[in-house]
Design goal:
This protein is α+β, with helices and mostly antiparallel strands. The chain folds into two domains: about 70 residues, Phosphorylase Kinase, domain 1 (2-Layer Sandwich), CATH 3.30.200; about 230 residues, Aminoglycoside 3'-phosphotransferase, Chain: A, domain 2 (Alpha-Beta Complex), CATH 3.90.1200.10. The chain is built from eleven helices and eleven strands. A five-stranded antiparallel β-sheet has the order 1-2-3-5-4, covered by helices on one side. β9 and β10 form a beta hairpin. α3 crosses α8 and α9 runs antiparallel to α10. It is globular, with a radius of gyration of 20 Å. The N and C termini lie far apart (about 55 Å). The model has no long low-confidence stretch (mean pLDDT about 95).
Length: about 325
């Protein structure tokens, strides 16, 4: 690898990785000293599965795992987020194209792949325990900053109980390939195609999860009418779906995901001094508020949040 001084550092994400552009090779150097198994080895393994299924994803050019980096091909700087922020572009048309990519991802049957160390990697199941632990980040990081110590202890107990109940109500089994961070900032527009990045957290889970991640994306504000149109287009392109059961899963997972995100954003601010994400928290609350009102099965959670965070839940 060239000296880092000769490479251009590019904007990273919320992870512990660093990214450098090698213009000469038209490649990206991904450096990860912490969590390098996930950020380097598993990332490439998942990309191999995506590429095998004719989905555009970063291809491995070289690896130097001992020295904490891999080199992958460069998809440029244009994300679907930037395209959708342009008011001249027809958002619904773009979202329809994204749904077609999501449908391709959800058709993936591969669960095993050889990584660049020639070891077999198996994509794990998105078990309820993982969903529970993720959602719990809300009461581990956010709630203590807002509630008094005694109130937080009571809230934490009730919150955990309610999350377990909601997870037990999910209808769809864990049989679908889930990217797990499927939103427009992780989709690139390159060579007139949509490419998928940041896929190292992929698991086999509920088919509603990635759709919730896309439609109720905390980074991109979209009107509720557009959200509904995109949801209906997805259902229209997946005729075997039981609409009522699927919509319940979609709304539960959207709410749990955004509670998790609030917890993660507070953790990034407190632990990692990345405070820029705090400004996204009010919109995450808006998304929770929007979904939580639509389902009777979310009533108990709504009341719990309303009693403790009345500023956000109406």
């Amino acid at each position: 690898m060239k000296s880092l001084a000769k490479l251009k550092k590019i904007k990273g994400d919320a992870s512990l990785r660093e990214f450098y552009r090698n213009r000469e090779n038209k490649s990206i150097i991904v450096i990860s000293k912490k969590e390098k198994l996930k950020n380097l080895l598993i990332y490439d393994a998942i990309n191999k599965i995506l590429i095998k299924n004719k989905i555009s994803a970063p291809n491995l050019i070289s690896e130097n795992y001992i020295n904490n980096y891999i080199e992958i091909n460069d998809f440029g700087d244009q994300t679907l987020f930037q395209i959708l922020k342009n008011k001249k572009n027809n958002k619904y048309v773009i979202f329809k194209k994204i749904i077609k990519i999501l449908n391709k991802i959800q058709l993936i049957k591969d669960k095993k792949v050889k990584n660049f160390k020639n070891k077999l990697y198996k994509v794990q199941e998105y078990k309820n325990k993982i969903l529970f632990d993720e959602t719990k980040l809300f009461c581990d990081w956010y709630a203590p900053k807002i509630l008094s110590k005694s109130k937080n202890i009571q809230f934490k107990k009730k919150f955990r109980l309610e999350i377990k109940k909601l997870l037990s109500k999910l209808n769809y089994e864990n049989v679908t390939f889930v990217h797990r961070d499927f939103h427009v900032s992780n989709l690139m527009y390159h060579n007139k195609k949509i490419a998928v990045i940041d896929s190292q957290d992929a698991l086999i889970g509920n088919r509603a999860y990635d759709l919730a991640s896309l439609i109720d994306d905390v980074r991109l504000k979209t009107p509720n009418e557009l959200k509904e149109k995109v949801f209906k287009f997805y259902v229209k392109t997946n005729k075997k779906i039981d609409l009522e059961r699927f919509k319940k899963d979609f709304e539960i997972l959207s709410v749990l995901r955004n509670l998790k995100i609030i917890g993660i954003f507070m953790r990034l601010a407190e632990r990692d001094n990345k405070k820029k994400y705090l400004k996204l928290i009010p919109y995450a609350w808006e998304l929770i508020n929007h979904r939580i009102k639509e389902q009777n099965q979310l009533n108990n959670l709504m009341l719990l949040l309303k009693n403790n965070f009345p500023k956000f839940i109406r």
